[in-house]
Design a protein that fits this description.
single chain, about 375 residues, alpha+beta, Peroxisomal Thiolase, Chain A, domain 1, two-stranded antiparallel sheet, binds octanoyl-coenzyme A
Length: about 375
């Protein structure tokens, strides 16, 4: 039995209204560090506490390629006394923050795919964090959009989007859903440790959404056949976030560094780049094409130097911005959504028969990729 042709038929992007530049972030972090160092001068002098080092915009841009990031709520982030966004608590009778941003991106994807709620049978909300455990954010979105069928949440950190697209493909092939709405509402700012010099600059907020369906039901102006896909995970402690439902039972402080995102960035860089390059190479070959046939690389957006290294391993050269569009300079690392932002902003110019690769990698470690062909 041959599988039916399955396509990505629409994509949507919600970008927050607020931006935070490197300079703004560094100014607030350095003010916080100076207050901390003054308040703890004696303990620092006696060696009981480490002095907080200062951050710099030049380092951030050189080490990561990030110049700015979008945030859901800016209020509070730059306050040296607070260093976290001030997001009002919503009541149980209100739509959650994540469902609200997911719904905006979802409507755009549905419109791009020419789909109404009655055409969709499943909703997957897949991202690095969900703001609560139940009811699933996906079920809340399903309700808000008036979709019948079923929804569930998935967490695979930076590979949440590509892994969810793969599950959507399988549902469509199995016939358990006609069309699947995959949404990645990445609200990273509440989990970003703005008090940590090594990671305060890394993340930004965004939401992306994608429709997956059979080619035979597709009525979209821009659609992409999924030719092949690949997922891989290899356990590593080098990127961790320990916050969770055990925090009170553990008598732990949720603001402790252990509970925020933290990483061994250098190790991640060194270990993940070769894994990602060989993963992509294998996926492209399994699709029956060569890397040189690929017209567009929608790569994960964590670090410009990582992307250049991976692309160099694959192509033997650094691709230009048209071949491998960069969005991390303005969006920063948006966990799983980076490659989908790049897809959203850079796919309509491709012509029938052009090949493209979507790829993500990160915590887990996890790597996910899909090889696409424009229809
Ligand atoms: N300002 C000035 N100097 C700094 C700063 C700073 N902000 N930070 C570090 N330095 C200093 C260091 O102290 C060091 O000094 P020295 O040489 O004297 O020891 C020097 O600069 C170099 O430091 P590093 O070696 O750490 O710098 P790198 O060149 O490695 O760059 C990066 C750091 C940018 C973090 C880089 O290692 C990197 O990007 N690595 C890969 C990271 C990655 O992709 N991680 C994946 C994270 S995302 C994920 O998987 C999960 C997503 C979950 C969502 C999270 C929501 C919050």
């Amino acid at each position: 039995m041959t599988n039916p042709q399955v396509v990505i038929s629409g994509a949507g992007l919600w970008t927050p209204d607020h931006t935070v530049s490197n300079d703004e972030l560094v100014q607030s972090y350095n003010a916080y560090a100076e207050i901390f160092n003054a308040e703890n001068a004696d303990a620092i002098a006696s060696g009981d506490i480490l002095e907080k080092p200062l951050s710099s915009s030049e380092f951030i841009e050189k080490a990561s390629g990030i110049k700015s990031r979008y945030v859901y709520i800016k209020d509070g982030i730059l306050d040296p006394e607070r260093m976290t966004p001030k997001i009002p608590l919503r009541g149980e009778d209100e739509i959650s923050d994540q469902a609200a941003i997911a719904t905006i991106a979802a409507r755009k994807a549905m419109s791009a795919a020419n789909k109404s709620a009655s055409d969709i049978d499943a909703v997957i909300v897949s991202c690095a964090y969900t703001q609560r455990y139940y009811p699933a954010i996906a079920i809340e979105v399903q309700h808000a959009l008036g979709i019948d069928g079923f929804g569930f949440d998935m967490l695979v950190a930076c590979s949440a989007a590509t892994f969810a697209l793969q599950r959507a493909y399988e549902m469509v092939v199995a016939g358990t859903a006609r069309s699947v709405l995959v949404i990645n509402p990445e609200l990273t700012s509440p989990q970003n440790n703005f008090r940590d010099r090594d990671s305060h600059f890394i993340f930004g907020d965004v939401a992306t959404a994608t429709i997956v369906e059979k080619a035979e039901t597709c009525h979209s102006d821009h659609s992409y056949e999924i030719l092949d896909m690949k997922a891989a995970t290899v356990f590593s402690n080098n990127i961790r976030s320990n916050i969770g439902y055990m925090v009170n039972a553990n008598d732990d402080n949720p603001l402790r560094e252990y509970n925020y995102f933290h990483q061994q960035g250098r190790k991640v860089f060194k270990e993940v780049c070769p894994l990602a390059a060989s993963h992509i190479q294998a996926n492209v070959e399994a699709a029956g094409i060569e890397v040189s046939d690929v017209k567009r690389w929608w790569l994960h957006q964590a670090n410009i130097n990582m992307n250049q290294l991976i692309a160099k391993k694959l192509l033997g050269r650094v691709p230009d911005n048209k071949e491998a569009p960069t969005v991390l300079d303005t969006y920063a690392n948006t966990a799983s959504a980076g490659s989908l932002i790049s897809f959203n902003l850079n796919h309509e110019d491709l012509v029938r028969g052009d090949y493209g690769v979507l790829c993500s990698f990160g915590a887990g470690y996890s790597i996910g990729s899909l090889v696409l062909r424009k229809r």
